Amino acid sequence: MSEVYALRRTRLRECCNAGGSAAALVTRPANVRYLAGPAPEGAVLLLGPAEDFLVCAGLPDDRSEQTRPDEALRVHAVPGTGGDPAVEAAGLAATGGADSLAVEEHHLTVTRHRALRSVAPGLRLADVGGAVEQLRVVKDEEEISCLRIGAEIADQALGELLESILVGRTERHLALELERRLVDHGADGPAFATSVATGPNAGRPGHRPTDRRVEEGDFLSVCLGATYRGYRCEIGRTFVIGTAPADWQIELYDLVFTAQRAGRESLVPGAACRDVDRAARQVLDSAGYAAALPALTGHGVGLEIDEDPQLTPGTMGKLDACVPVTVEPGVHLPGRGGVRIDDTLVVRPEADGGPELLTITTKELLAL
């Protein structure tokens, strides 16, 4: 992986040099990991004029391959205790001969920004913007492999839950069990807080599990994800508990399923992000559910669970090949519940079989 990390840093350096900065300071944790590999909490990356440094509060733990940063990087520990690695890195840049430093202004606090100026008053601070985030959008096959394994873990955890007795158990208990199963199957941990929603809560985006117990006839919607080697995937499914679904449940489920399929089939290289959103949204809109729709149809995933691109009505830009995204339309009807169906896919050209589905748990409306 050292060569991969080095290539990523070279691409960022070229971007910064083009903007007139001789050095760059990366502080956002996901961006540090992308460019330097697993690093201690709070570590920052300095791309210097002559040498790159991973600046840490303490030395990295090299006992595990999964906690060891790129061995080609020079590690610099902040002397003493309580020092800020970002401030230390700015000092290194100044003493190394840099006259300008590109920083991630969208991540730095005002206090930290002032501290950088204080320790290196001769440095001209510029904004690197979202340059690293843009580099992260298109994934290489190693990154996609991590997402694929994470999706397999999430599928396993969800499949095992569906084989257990659900009636009478609380949303909170089911969410905790799912998160335990993710770790049991090899995940670093959950990709985000697991959502389990029953009855009138079902289909509500971002629902936080409560002590409501599962009842016969409920819709049960679940949204979970696994983190594997830092990469995060997402899956969401909706089921009916105990009995054959009611007519309104079948009708609503089929509608959301049709919308989700339309969104999935739109995932081709060159497709406008807003057109993918439109493909799914217009199915639900035309059925009269415009007011019940979430703000977006999907989003990118990777080292963070919510990355670019955003699949929304107002998003500009087009999809590239090898971009992993979610497609997650849903409808929530207040007081009744609703349906969400959520998959993680990778944009692939038609010649390669079209979009690659990573989360494969059945989307059939099961009565559990």
Q: Summarize the amount of helix as a percent range.
A: 25-40%
Element-by-element helix/strand order: HEHEEEHEHEHHHEEEEEEHHEEEEEEE
- Described by the principal axes of the CA atoms, the overall outline is elongated
Q: Please provide the count of β strands.
A: 19
- Strand fraction: 15-25%
Rounded Rg? 23 Å
User: Largest beta sheet: what is the strand line-up?
Assistant: 4-3-2-1-5-6
Which terms would index this structure?
368 residues, alpha+beta, six-stranded mixed β-sheet, three-stranded antiparallel β-sheet, 20% strand
Structure description:
This protein has nine helices and 19 strands. The chain has 368 residues and is an alpha+beta fold. It starts with a helix and ends in an 11-residue tail after the last strand. A six-stranded mixed β-sheet has the order 4-3-2-1-5-6, with helices on both faces. The protein has a three-stranded antiparallel β-sheet with strand order 7-10-11. A three-stranded antiparallel β-sheet has the order 8-9-12, covered by helices on one side. Helix 4 links the parallel strand 5 and strand 6. The protein is elongated and about 70 Å long.
Strand-helix topology:
Layout lengths: L1 H17 L4 E4 L2 H8 L7 E4 L4 E5 L17 E4 L7 H11 L4 E4 L6 H10 L4 E4 L3 H7 L3 H22 L8 H14 L4 E2 L4 E4 L20 E6 L1 E3 L2 E2 L2 E6 L6 H19 L7 H14 L11 E3 L6 E5 L12 E4 L2 E4 L3 E4 L2 E4 L9 E2 L11
Parallel strand pairs: 1-5, 3-4, 5-6
Antiparallel strand pairs: 1-2, 2-3, 7-10, 8-9, 9-12, 10-11, 13-14, 15-18, 16-17, 18-19
Helix pairs in contact: 3-4, 6-7, 8-9
